[in-house]
Amino acid sequence: MLALVLIALAAMPQEVEDAPFVSRVGMPSGTIADTASVTGVAFDPQGGLWTCDPERSTLVLHAIGRTNVIALRELARLTDVEVRGERIFVSGSDAVVELSLRGEELRRFGAWGRAAGMLREPAGIAIDGEYLYVADTGNDRVQRFSLIDGSALANGTRGSGAGEFLRPSDVAVDEAGCIYVSDSGNHRVVKLDRDLKFLKAWGDFGPHPGFFAEPAGLAWHEGELYVVDTDNHRVQVFDSEGLRIHEWGLHALLPREGDGKLHYPSKLALHGDVVALSEPFEDRVQLFRRTEPGEEVPQPQRFERVVSAHFGGHVSVAGDLAALCEPTAPSFVLYDVKNTLEPWEPVLVARSSSWGRRAGQMLAPTDIELDWERRRLWLADADAGTLSVWSFEHDEAKPLEFDFFKARMLRSLDLAKLHALGLDGGDEAIRPSALELGPHGSLLVLDTLSRALFTVTEDLSSVRRVRAQLGPRPVDVAWSEKERCAWIVDAQECRVASVALDAAEAELRTPFGKRGRGKGELLSPSGLAVAPDGSLLVVDEALHRVSRFDSNGTWRGSFGARGTGARELHKPRGIDVDEQGRAWVVDWGNHRVQVLSLNGEFVASFGARAFVREALRSK
Amino acid sequence: MRVQILSLSMLLATCAAPDVRDVPPSPQESRASEAPRTPDFVTDAALRSGAGTYLLELDPPLAAMPDNESFRFEVRVADAHTRQAATDITLAVDAAMPEHGHGMNRVPRVSRLADGRFAVEGMYFHMTGRWELYLDVTRGAWTERAQFRVELSDE
Cα(first)–Cα(last) distance of chain B, in Å? Predict the structure, then answer.
């Protein structure tokens, strides 16, 4: 009997000693709300948190018992901030500025340009000893400035190989002096030595651990590299060689959902055991702390099904169809808009999606334009550096159904090769950011970064640069058949102006627009369309509204306000007007398109599915 | 398992560019047309690329392409205007099943043959259903697609 008991005891599971507790960062501990489109964040030595407000061009200090707001008059679209002792470094559209804590400008690094020492839209900075490191995003490179004599060292060109970058967006430095770069467009992290020589890279496009989708903010802290994995809505933590240590981030599924849920996080900063994570999409900063015994960091979910559309910044409506890009998919989609459903709602009828660099594939499509009469559509992909023309079929007599074979690519134009052949009239390859059908079936192509407008023949065989001096940040173009001119909206100058395409040296004409929050004023215009009567509709991402102007610039009214309901918008971006005079507004922050009358009356919305449908119904 | 290929007329409808405009010949071309004519590089059965720049002829033709086994075919690419071999181009070949969201599970190899033809090896349609075959012709900065539909059924 005793033997049996001993055997039974031996067969019982041995009590396993608990694994030693390891504290991980990722427990939500607070939110700083109403930080409009907040980008960069940085802690000062006392633990105060500085945030960048790109809409007001201000730095704001959040600290108990201390307040400070620094307005920067000579630096627009703030992107990142670092604090070292009594100095603040802040990056913006074309420079990095060194400030005193009182806001006095002490020094400026860079100016708009492509030469070494010059910058275009630098998105991230880091300080290490005597050097300032800058992610020179628009120039696809990293720069190192000496804090002693201001001398600059630049390294990197546009591409995906060693020593190449595609829209690098942040930098971090470890104790050994190695530099880490979030190479956003290539969905990887690149490690450089202190002289900016390539050491290694890790990551690729995808949702799984160790993969990235638009990595952005970086921070090196206590031997670990924190990487904000923006489009995967999470933070991943690595060692210095790219070995993944852990991750956190639960994807928000409802509008403005927080309390630890993430939605397009951007930059981060660490102080002790606290992480501050900015989310410009949600106008907030969330704080996270380390776990305590018994706690577990909520792990990211990887969804099997798509719960919402992720439209890009533009929409094109023509004939029976509406077309949109989904840059993060990447894909373009076609919706039938002439169906007889009750209540009427555009219906998804086609999708083309293939990630890659080969012809017919996409990296991040930026705009799409429809020509209903000729059954053509054009697609722009700035990351891939391509324009492509596609044909499509659509028979309204056939039953409404999804058609996998609806669109087919006819021809693709490699804009880097075109530039190498000297056939684009510019001094760098075109990066198409907006498209518009122009006169005589031509295509208008806007390049925000090079501040240039091009006309392209319908078959993409010929490209001509329009000789016009555009503003600092032209973001959308619209063609007015009535005025026979192209209208351009500039996000930085909050200005709309027209360009005559056939002039030898075209000048911007009839400019209008004033920066502000009042009636008829603009704060961050992001899209433009011409109504059938020639009036102009301007979408404002920061003011969550659409304003209407006569062609002489007289304000005729606005519609839209921040929210998720009908007639409400959240960071709207693109707009088009259909033949019935209805406005199609890309309600980007609500993952949907709203169709509204020109007076702002609600007609329909589509795309959001689970994200805001219930919220919309409740209104 | 039987391979069912769409009829040639359907294929032409799939591939032809309906509004490609005829360009009148230049004076040099008119004079050239009076010279002894070089035999066409492709036959009248050749199919037109998406924007109408090229004529492509497959050997064996689409209807003879097998399923569920690796196969090889050759491609002649001619300029549509001259019907002569397009020598300053590169060719890439791929295939996909849009309804299933995937392509082939092999990457075909394309090599240029001495007489201006191309050999495509390592093709493999690994399941039945509707395939799209893509032949991308690149000259300079422009890539033009010739696209064919191939239906494979179990019947």
Answer: 6
Q: Give the residue numbers spanning the domain of B83.
A: 2-14+43-153
- Which residue does chain B place closest to A459, by CA atoms? B51
Counting the structural domains of chain B, the total is 1
Q: Burial code of B93-114, b = ≥16 C-beta within 10 A, e = fewer?
A: bbbbbbeeeebbeeebebeeee
Mutation target to probe the B interface, by most B beta carbons within 10 A, among A412, A419, A454, A458 is A412
What is the pLDDT, as a whole number, of residue B10? 36
Residue B148 contacts residue B125 (beta carbons within 8 Å)? no
- Please report whether residue B50 resides in a domain: yes
Cα B106 from Cα A244, distance rounded (Å): 31
In a domain, B32, yes or no: no
Straight-line distance from the first to the last Cα atom of chain A, in angstroms, rounded to the nearest whole number: 75
Contacts of A245 (CB under 8 A, 6+ apart): A224, A237, A238, A239
Q: What percent of chain A has pLDDT over 90?
A: 80
Identify the burial level of A119 via C-beta atoms within 10 angstroms of its C-beta, where 0-12 means exposed, 13-18 middle and 19 or more buried.
buried
Tokens of residue A347, six digits: 């219906």
Residues of B in contact with A359 (CB under 8 A): 92, 134, 136, 138, 143, 145
CATH code at B78? 2.60.40.10
Split at pLDDT 50, 70, 90, the class of A254 is confident
Helix (H) or strand (E) holding A147: none
Interatomic CA distance for residues B137 and B147, integer angstroms: 11
DSSP class of residue A607?
A: S
| Residues on A contacting B at a C-beta cutoff of 8 Å | 352-354, 358-360, 374, 389, 391, 404-405, 408-415, 417-418, 420-421, 423, 459-461
Establish if B111 belongs to a structural domain.
yes
pTM of the model: 0.90
Are residues A414 and A385 in contact, defined by beta-carbon separation less than 8 angstroms? Answer: yes
* Alpha carbon A426 to its chain's center: 25
Condensed to tens digits (0 to 9), the pLDDT of residues B68-93 reads 899 999 999 999 999 999 999 999 99
* DSSP secondary structure letters along A249-316: -EEP-STT--TTEESS---EEEETTEEEEEEGGGTEEEEEEE--TT--PPPPP--SS--S----S-EE
Q: DSSP states of A36-99 as a string?
A: TT---EEE-TTS-EEEEETTTTEEEEEETTEEEEEE-SS--S--EEEEETTEEEEE-SS-EEEE
B48 within some domain? yes
Supply the pLDDT for residue A16: 53
The predicted-structure confidence for A537-547, as pLDDT tens digits, reads as follows 999 999 999 99
Q: Peptide bond preceding A343: is omega within 30 degrees of 0, i.e. cis?
A: yes
The residue of chain A nearest to residue B52, with distances taken between CA atoms, is A410
Interface of B with A (CB under 8 A): 14, 17, 19, 50-51, 92, 94, 96, 98-99, 101, 103, 130, 132, 134, 136, 138, 140-145, 147, 149
Q: Which two tokens mark A55?
A: 């809409």
